[in-house]
Every structure is written in structure tokens, then in C-alpha cells.
Amino acid sequence: MDTDATVSERDRSSAPDESAKERSRSSRWRTPGSSRSRTPDSSRWRGWRPYALIAAVCCTVVLLVSTFVVQPFLIPSGSMENTLRPGDRVLVNKLAYRFGDEPRRGDVVVFDGTGSFVQGEPSGNPVTGLLREVGAALGVAEPAETDYVKRVVGVGGDRVTCCDRRGRIKVNGHPVDEPYLYPGDAPSLVRFDVVVPEGRLWVMGDHRSDSRDSRDHLGAPGGGTVPVDKVIGRADWIGWPFGRWSSLDRPTAFDRVPEPGGAHG
Fold first, then answer.
1. At 191, phi and psi to the nearest 5?
2. To 10 degrees, what angle do helices 35-68 and 126-137 make?
3. Can you name the CATH fold of 71-264?
4. Which residues make beta-bridge pairs with 92?
5. Contacts of 62 by beta carbon, 8 Å cutoff, 6+ apart
6. pLDDT tens-digit map of 201-230
7. Own/partner long-range contacts of 24-28 (Cβ < 8 Å, ≥24 apart)
8. For 243-265, how does the pLDDT look when each residue is reduced to its tens digit (9 = 90+)?
9. CB neighbours (10 Å) of residue 78?
10. What would the DSSP string read from start to end of 107-166?
11. By Cβ atoms counted within 10 A, which residue in 37, 51, 104, 240 is the most buried?
């Protein structure tokens, strides 16, 4: 028996194919979709992932703060000049009236005018409305058409009238000198005599000749007054532009106004 031939045959069959090795090695590097071909893209994404996460967290924090604590509010018109000018960003304190305090005479407030200044719910594209709400929450877009910024002139129970012999508005029979009015403006060219219902506010713009406010809605439900629970917050600071940084302090004009009971007496 030819044992050498048998052994030689066995050796040839068990020896690895060198060309197969080359093909296998080549396929590991060139096969589309292999783990090695995806490595550069995966590494690039892993490099950006921390920044994307930080950006998402920052946006979430800003939106939460804007929703519950302080919201930037873009002033869209000149109805509050010269106190507030178009393009100003005010910071609205949403906690000002959350813990038992209520709006006071002289406060500058932002409120939702739905049901008082605007009758009926506004209609529109919900996606566009959502994007606008996000932009308004960040102070980079105009607020909703139903949001207004005005000054509180009368609170629940007050009798607000226009005008005395010098043209001044009276609250509970007391004439009020208003130093914040736009230069040259009369306190009002519209005559009115209103008793503000409890839980509501009489509001007016500082630029009286360029403001649509409670006077323009005397015949509407509520007689032009705004529900306190529609107040979004109190405008406490001007945050932009930098040259107008300042706080919006409550004026002393209403300090001597008597309580409502004394006015009716």
C-alpha cells in the first residue's frame, strides 16, 4: 500500500486555500454596510451627541422657566409708550400673583384678552400656532394676537371716571396725576363712568391716543374690564435692548386713592 501517496493526498485537502484567505480579508474591509464602513459616521455622531443633549436640556429648561416663572414678552406696538417701546423685551413675572397677591393700581400687566378684548377663540393652523407660542415664550416672536400689555387703573370695586375739570381720570373720586403718560396725550378723550366688578380690572395704555384698551370695549361683555384670572403676569423689567435695561416700578400716582367704600359715600 502506498502510504506516502495517501498522506500526501490528505495534506493537500486539509491545507488552507491562500486565495480564499485573500478574498476573506478583502471582504472584511470592502463589504458595504460592514461595521468598519460605518465607523467614521458613528464616531462623528458620538462626537456631536453630547452637544445635542446639552442643547435639548437648555431648551427644555428655558421653556419651563418661561412657562412657570419668567417669560420674555416682545412689545409689538406703541400703545405703552414711552414706558415701553415697540421692540422692547419685557420680563413678565408669572409668580407675582400666584401666592395670594393680586394686581394693584399702577401695575403693568400682560393678560389674555380672550372673552374681554377679543370675542371668541382665534382660529388658525395649530402647527403655526405652536411654533409661534414657542417663539413668543423665548421672546423672539410677537405674542399671540390675544395677548395684551396695559397698565391697571382700576381694580375690583373701584369707580373709574373721566374726567375732572383738569382732564384727569378719577378713581374713587380722587383725581390721579399720571406722569407716565405719553408726552402731549390727554388722559382720555373718551368719557366714561365705570364701577369695576369684583375679580376684574380696568386697564389702559400709557399712550392713550394710540391704545385700544378698556375704553374701546365698554359695550362688550364685562364692560371693557379684564378678569384677574386672565392675567399672565406682571411686567417687572425691560431686558432688551441693553440700553433700556430698567425695572418697571409701581408709580406713586395711586397712593392717595381711597378704598372703594369711601368713594360711594
1. -85, 140
2. 70
3. Umud Fragment, subunit A (2.10.109)
4. 71, 235
5. 138
6. 999 999 999 999 999 999 998 999 999 999
7. none
8. 999 999 999 999 999 999 754 43
9. 16
10. -EEEEE-BTTTB-S-----HHHHHHHHHHHHTTSSPPPTTEEEEEEEE-TT-EEEE--TT
11. 240
* Residues 220, 213: Cα–Cα separation, whole Å: 12
DSSP class per residue in 200-238: EEEEE-SSGGG---GGGGTTSTTTT-EEGGGEEEEEEEE
Q: Where in the chain is the domain with CATH 2.10.109.10?
A: 71-264
**Euclidean distance between CA atoms 206 and 224, whole angstroms:** 17
Partners of 174 in the β-ladder: 171
Output the nine-digit C-alpha cell for 156.
375690583
> Which pLDDT tens digit goes with each residue over 136-167?
555 555 567 889 999 999 999 999 999 999 99
- For the record, the C-alpha cell of 57 comes out as 436640556
Q: What is the pLDDT of residue 36?
A: 47
> Residue written as cell 400682560?
110
What's the whole-model pTM score?
Answer: 0.72
Distances (CA, A) of 135 to 42, 62, 73, 118, 128: 33, 12, 10, 22, 11
List the grid coordinates of 149: 400689555
Residue 94 amino acid letter? K
Nearest to residue 104, comparing CAs of 153, 144, 49, 61? 153
Residues annotated as catalytic are 79, 150
Q: Of 92, 36, 37, whose CA–CA distance to 67 is shortest?
A: 92
In three-state secondary structure terms, 177 is: coil
